[in-house]
Amino acid sequence: MEIIQSIVIQSEQSTFKDMATLFEKYIVSTSRKYKSVQQIHIIFYTYSANSLKGETRRRRGDYESSNKVHVHRNKKIPTDWKKFLSSLANKASLTQYYTGFLKENSNLKTHEKIFINGGADTECLEITTDGCR
After folding, report:
1. How far is CA 24 from CA 59, 60, 74, 98, in A?
2. For the chain, which residues make up each domain, given as ranges?
3. Are 44 and 119 in contact (CB under 8 A)?
4. 85 exposed, middle or buried (CB, 10 Å; 0-12, 13-18, 19+)?
5. Sign of the torsion formed by the C-alpha atoms of 109, 114, 119 and 122
6. How far apart are CA 37 and CA 23, in angstroms?
7. What sign results for the dihedral spanned by CA atoms 83, 89, 91, 95?
8. Which residues of the chain register pLDDT less than 70?
9. Which 3-state string (H, E, C) describes 24-35?
10. Which of 9, 4, 2 is nearest to 101 (CA)?
C-alpha cells in the first residue's frame, strides 16, 4: 500500500483507472532503471480482522471511519484518500481492482514478469507478455 498511498492524485476528476495506470507505470519504470531486473513482485498484505492490528483498529473505530466503496475503472477517487484507505473492505476492493488491471494492462517486455500475491486471489499470480497463470 505504500506505493499506492504515495501516488499523487492528479485532479478531482481522477478515476481508479487513472490511479491504476500511474501505479503500473511506476512499478514497471522503476524496475527498468535496473537493467538486470526481470521479475517484479507485488505483495498486497492484508490484515485479518482477528489480528492484533485489526483489534487495535476496531477499538479506535477505524473500521467504521469510511463507507465501503465499490472500486471500478470509471469511479472517481474519493476526496479523502486516507479515510478511504482506512477501511479493510476498501483496501480489499482496491487490491482486487489493481490485480485485475495489471492482468489486462501491463506493458511488459518479453523477459519481464510480474508476480502478485494477496490481490484478487490467495495464490500467487504470474503475469507475462503471454498472459497470466
Report:
1. 35, 33, 17, 9
2. 37-132
3. yes
4. middle
5. positive
6. 18
7. negative
8. 8, 10, 46-49, 57, 61-66, 120-122
9. HHHHHHHHHCCC
10. 4
| CA–CA distance, 73 with 42 (Å, rounded to integer) | 20
Phi, psi of 12 (to 5 degrees): -70, -15
Query: What pLDDT score does 97 carry?
Result: 94
pLDDT at 42: 92
pLDDT value of position 91: 86
For residue 41, report the phi and psi dihedrals to the nearest 5 degrees.
-110, 125
In angstroms, how far apart are the furthest CA atoms of the chain? 48
Alpha helices in 33-87 (DSSP H): 52-60, 81-85
Measured in degrees and rounded to the nearest 5, phi and psi for residue 127 equal -115, 130
Closest CA to 67 of 86, 43, 50, 54: 86
Beta bridge partners of 114: 40, 127
Q: What is the pLDDT of residue 120?
A: 63
- How far apart CA 106 and CA 40 sit, in angstroms, is 12
What is the Cα–Cα distance from 72 to 95, expressed in whole angstroms? 11
Query: What pTM did the predictor assign?
Result: 0.83
